[in-house]
Specification:
Layout: E1 2-8, E2 11-17, H1 29-33, E3 36-44, E4 47-48, H2 51-64, H3 72-89, E5 101-109, E6 119-125, H4 130-137, E7 139-145, H5 152-155, H6 169-180, E8 185-189, E9 202-209, E10 215-221, H7 232-243, E11 247-250, H8 255-260, E12 263-268, E13 272-279, E14 282-283, H9 287-302
The structure holds pyridoxal-5'-phosphate.
Length: 305
Amino acid sequence: MTVLVFLDPSRPDGRLADATAPALLATDQGATRGDGIFESLLAVNGLPRKVDAHLSRLGRSAHSLDLAIPGPDAWMRAIATALTAFAAASPPAPDEHGNTNIVIKLFASRGVEGANTPTAWVQASAVPPALAEQRARGLDVLLLERGYDSTIAQRAPWLLLGAKTLSYAVNMAALRHAHARGADDVIFTSSDGHVLEGPTSSVLLAHVSDDDGTPIKRLITPNLDSGILPGTTQGALFAAAREAGWELGYGPVEPADLLDADAVWLISSIRLLAPVNRIDGRDIGTAEVRARLTAELSALLAQTH
Ligand SMILES: Cc1ncc(COP(=O)(O)O)c(C=O)c1O
């Protein structure tokens, strides 16, 4: 079940559309060139989470692509329409914490060729059940080269690294490559040997003891200027973890740092924290520490808005 709401200047709350019928023109450049942007966020108990962070990132992506998209108020009203329609048509069952979850996606494409008017729409759908399973079971991950060095984003802004564009075919191909080799997911590396991000996630690692065995609480994520998407989940989790006494750090992170960590996660708005069991076949930390830290950080993330 999917609900679609198009942003439409003549309909302030958006225009509901039948998701099973054609809704985009075949000449829309989102379809013909992948020329557009998107966001994925979770609505918990009917409230979109981190919505300001998602709308700001949508605005930054739009700026990178020189796309004139509708303002935050139009998106908020369309999101509300989509949530109401989805909850009425397909009320989500409560999760293990008694919360209901709905996936909201925001899309803006460059619109039909020649018209120069972006097409913008909101989609509401159920959370894929595989994600809860991944959180519980953990992930086998492959390191795959992205092919760019970690400083390319500044030198080549036309690559749109760090924007959340509709051109995700490469990311999906990387995931299929991993699946064909029996792995669940991917961590991209740069040509100069830095850890970047997953195809649909940020990378996070934790240390809970120093080299001499002293207990510490340290979270590290790759530096945000290395051509990666700044994750809203990473941002929210860092803010909550700082309050809870964690020391926070940004990369550069190298593959050896992942293998040395006490725990590694792939994190994103819909999947939340999925622990990594193995990278390129090598175990990361211990199952006990991984489970304990996943529970602790997931509880912190659940408190964020
Ligand atoms: C490439 C990439 N990096 C990171 C993320 C995590 O972003 P967020 O935490 O805002 O969902 C995503 C989310 O889909 C992504 O596609």
